[in-house]
Amino acid sequence: MKMLKYSFGLLAMALVFLSSCRDTVTPNVPYTDFDNGAYLRTIARTSTTFNFFDLANSKFALTLEAVDNEDGATVETVEIRVRHRRLIPGVGLEFTPANDVLVSTLQAADFQPNPDSRFLRTTFEVSATAAISAVGLTPADIEGGDVFEFRLVLNDKFGRRFSSDNVTTNVAGAPFYASPFQYPVSVICPSDLAGTYQFDHLETFCGDTFSGSTTWTAVASTPGAYTVSDGTFGAWQSCYPDTWGSGNVRINDACNRLTMTGTDKYGDSYSMTVISSTPEVLTFEWVNTFGEFGTVAVKSNAGKPWPNLR
Fold it and tell me: Keywords assigned by UniProt (predicted)?
């Protein structure tokens, strides 16, 4: 009898426990009354840079998918807005204008069915010249490293707006949503100076002149930077002799403006000054903090003329 009472007590406790657990996981929440928003999923970033050397043919282009409770049908318009940003050394960021301006508007009809999903999609592009004009600048005002901040504003048929100022971090950054509503488009200066070149050393600190070859290797982590095989371009070997060894000197191409950085194995740093540049020959002077220097005329390779370097 005692055993039966004990077993009955355990059963009663288990029923109470299960009942209480059930109540906590099935709350009476009116899901059907929840509001549903909308966002623009980024399907393809077709073009998100402007080429400084070819602004006339540069563009910002995306493929977007409208995601909402009606598979994209609540979208009324999408404003494409833009402003120009520049980093001023020692000052900070400068915006032109202070607030972004409208450059283009997508209509509901621009969103169409597609074979890959149930949501409506659109593909659009904004030319660099249109963006430059919208912010009140001209192509002559643009510099390499400038950024155009494009911002999208989705307006739906219920009078609501969705943009970067009211999107959650998860929707903006998570790969599934991919809806930042804001896209930075940098003005870049493509550089293609990697290669092995023949050169004439026209002058050295010891008075020697000679010919040789130099190899410029692109630095993967730093666009426009090239490690040179010998920062003295053979001058140590000719004048002492000595070997370049573990030195690490780079030539940096910032929109066709060349600089030299880095140090040799003794810790001396390097700089350069371009004397002249033609499609056939690039002539510059190198100098280090030990006082060594040289003037080098580097010949271009067949089919790959030098750009207008300075």
Answer: Signal
